[in-house]
Amino acid sequence: MTKLLVVATGNPGKLLEMQAYLANSGWELRLKPEELEIEETGDTFVANACLKASQVAKATGNWAIADDSGLQVDALNGAPGVYSARYGNSDAFRIARLLRELGEQSQRQAQFVCVVAIARPDGAIVLQSEGICQGEILYAPRGNYGFGYDPIFYVPEKQMTFAEMTPELKRAVSHRGKAFANLLPKLASLEITDS
Ligand code: IMP
């Protein structure tokens, strides 16, 4: 039996990415209705992922999945954090702002965090999973792959920025990849009759 899972995003790119992670999971993914808008009012990744999944599930009457992610820079007290997407009007502005705020600071530790949440049709959250990827913020962008802050996020273990990694390698080491890897076994054992 194919089970329907509504993705709490309006972004077709995110749908494709989730489809790659959840291929062979037995769930069929579908974008949320366009007119259904959910504001990210939470002040943590967990709160935002849960509120998106829960509201989309209740509004559509289906199971729903949502993720929330962002970059936390230690020397900036965790900024931009949940405001990563709202830190500027474009990726270039967001990167420029982050590099400006960090300046010549030598302490450049940072982490990407991703939380994925799944809600059943009545809105109750039944699964949550978190993935973290540790790295450092470079002084200047490097690499052409990816999106967002990828060109300035350096992963010492691989000696590459996210933007220098192939999509396959990034999936293997990234916060999102880890969050989905944690989620898959839990999803497989989920009892779906109890909505
Ligand atoms: P959201 O999870 O769609 O709310 O987006 C969070 C924001 O964090 C994105 O718009 C990016 O700016 C940033 N972000 C999240 N994950 C990544 C990543 O893998 N690479 C680069 N930037 C990311």
Written account of the structure:
The mean pLDDT is 94. The radius of gyration is 17 Å and the shape is globular. The two termini are 16 Å apart. It has a seven-stranded mixed sheet with strand order 2-1-3-4-5-6-7. Strand 1, helix 1 and strand 2 form a beta-alpha-beta unit. Helix 4 (167-173) crosses helix 5. With 195 residues, it is an alpha/beta fold. It is built from five helices and seven strands. The chain has one domain (3-188): Alpha-Beta Complex (Maf protein), CATH 3.90.950.
Pick out its properties.
195 residues; alpha/beta; Maf protein; 7-stranded mixed sheet; 5 helices; 26% strand; globular; binds inosinic acid
CATH class: Alpha Beta
In this entry the ligands are: inosinic acid
Outline the biggest β-sheet. Answer: 7 strands, mixed
As for the CATH topology, it is: Maf protein
What proportion of the residues form beta strands (DSSP E)?
25-35%
* Rg value: 17 Å
Structural class: alpha/beta
Oligomer: single chain
Q: What gap, in angstroms, lies between the N and C termini?
A: 16 Å
Q: Overall 3D geometry?
A: globular
Order of helices and strands: EHEHEHEEEEHH
What CATH architecture would you give? Alpha-Beta Complex
User: Main sheet: which strands, in order across?
Assistant: 2-1-3-4-5-6-7
| Count of separate structural domains | 1
Number of helices: 5
Tell how many strands the DSSP assignment holds. 7
Low-confidence stretches: none
Percent helix range: 25-40%
Mean pLDDT across every amino acid position: 94
